[in-house]
Amino acid sequence: MMTNVKLQFHNEVDKAYYKLFYSTDKFIALKGARASGKSMAAAFKVIYDLLRFPYCNWLVIRQFQTTQRNSSYNTIKEVISILGLGQFFKSNVSPLEITFLPTGQKIYFRGMDDPLKLTSIKAEHGFICRTWWEEAYELKSLDAFNTVIESIRGLLPDNGYYQHLLTFNPWSEQHWLKSEFFDDETRRKSVLSFTTTYHNNHHLNQGFIDDMEEMKIRNPNRARVAVYGDWGIAEGLVFDGLFDLEDFEPSEIVGRQIMGLDFGFTHDPTAFVKATVKDNDIYVYGGFYHTGMLNEPMAHKLAQNGAMLGRVYADSAEPRTIAELQTRGLRNVIPVGKGKDSNQQRIEFMKNYRYHIHPSATYLFEEMSTFTYQKDKFGKFLNKPEDGNDHAIQALGYALEPIIFTNKDGSYMNFQQRVQAVKDIGLR
Hints:
Elements: H1 19-22, E1 27-32, H2 38-52, E2 56-62, H3 69-82, E3 89-93, E4 96-100, E5 105-111, H4 115-118, E6 127-134, H5 142-151, E7 163-168, H6 176-181, E8 191-196, H7 206-218, H8 220-226, E9 243-245, E10 256-262, E11 270-278, E12 281-290, H9 295-304, E13 312-314, H10 319-327, E14 333-335, H11 342-350, E15 354-357, H12 362-370, E16 373-375, E17 381-385, H13 391-399, H14 401-404, H15 415-424
Parallel strand pairs: 1-7, 1-8, 2-5, 2-6, 6-7, 9-15, 10-13, 12-15, 13-14
Antiparallel strand pairs: 3-4, 4-5, 10-11, 11-12, 16-17
Protein name: Phage terminase large subunit
Pfam families: Terminase_3, Terminase_3C
Domain Phage terminase large subunit N-terminal: 27-229
């Protein structure tokens, strides 16, 4: 038998999240800005409901099963540790589950790779009556979501209730999450929906807060989602309809391997991208995306990510950084060519491809979701992208350098040759 446990959440969870613990609405849709603490608050709710309702089992779902262990699974384990309840829980990685030992209740972690498989899961003790859809923005299909929701039914004891919690960053206003759970005219019945920001996470350091404030000025499109938690802008996207998150096995994609590097530091991230080019498809599967990265740790990180196994095309505006990386053994890091309008021409050429972005490279997905064209004073879109929210995009563009703007003899194309190259593929 388990002794009574007094759960102290108030030091860990902001008041904005208290409604998670007393709402009996069928759906709770929580969209939030970056580092708003929403995933941690959701994990606290998972444990709270599990302990409070002996009939309750949780099904934690993400679009890609491979992303569960390093996200929701570890977050829930952290909450168990914070609450001092480790002795009462058993964690298992195959299959990915957490069991509450006194009662046998479980937390199941599954992916939407095959929604029909989710409908066949049966709890060993009690009922699966709660779901947590983490990173719900990644969900591909409303129909698949409904299939799972409709399969979770049946009479619960003690006036029990079913509940489905969705947490996500709202990268586009076109996603069905908006109409299903937030728009007054179309939203479902019995829905609690709300938005939180980094102001609702009191565990952040001042450096991160300063970065968020800086983003409001430097990258307003990205700040719309990442700082304010508002819906991302759907119109004017540079790569509109050309990118998507997909779970694939990189080793199974046969094509040309490319790598690119864009430098940043205080407020701008250093972005390293690895990808495979196969015909008109580009499969982006790895790299990193960090601010405040000095040259020594950058060199180490690059080596860890395979930068010594092929050429890495880097931003030529940082010759000193490139030279220092080369002296640290990364002799394959070489500067890209630059000239009049080369960045804009490179972006235009990149629109000739379709991008398959692995879940390990979500930073590129997030950039493409907020990377728009500039507007003139009349609100008309110009043929020039906004600057500042494109570090992973630039890294990918640099990686494509030998394919798009390099002559057969290895020389960099001049301005007129680059203009003609863009025209030749019908983009201008």
